[in-house]
Amino acid sequence: MLRESEARDRTAFVELLASPDVHTYLGGPGPRDVLERDLPEVPERWAGSFVVDLHGAMIGQVLLRRASRHRPSAVGKVDLGYLFLPRAWGFGYAAESCTAALGWFADVLPSEPVVLATQTANVSSMRLAAKLGFTEVERFHAWGAEQWLGMRSSVTPSS
Q: Tell me, what DSSP letter sits at residue 157?
């Protein structure tokens, strides 16, 4: 289930943002002590930021936000991002959650394309991008690794 973040999610956000496994392809984890000190009581609460909830507990996050730091071909477009706790990997939750978030977005802004960037070394993320219907726009080198930028054309809003 996708929902807004709540105060009860704060501990899971710290775990997610401090996890070396989660941040293998994202430049490394945040320092746990800094996250525990600085993270707001209700983290990441804004339109387009979803907590992925499984049986009442946060297992991940899906984000839809305007791209500002990718390649010029992506700037200003909506960027899909996702993070999942390692214990939730391999069960299809990312595909299901991202599909639901993209459906929500298609209802809100049906004519907007969505971009997704990931390291080419992140095989799981590359597979997910293909499964979600993203097609390659370009590859580029940034943050010390080859990056992949894909785009998903606008889709018809769900009924």
A: P
Under DSSP, is residue 10 helix (H, G, I), strand (E, B) or coil?
helix
- Which residue do the tokens 């984890």 mark? 29
> Identity (one letter) of the amino acid at 63?
L
Domains of the chain, each with CATH number or no CATH: 2-110 (3.40.630.30)
Its pTM stands at 0.89
114-158 confidence digits (pLDDT tens): 999 999 999 999 999 999 999 999 999 987 899 999 999 765 444
Q: 155: helix, coil or strand?
A: coil
Both ends of the chain: CA-CA distance in Å?
18
- Name the 3-class secondary structure at 59: strand
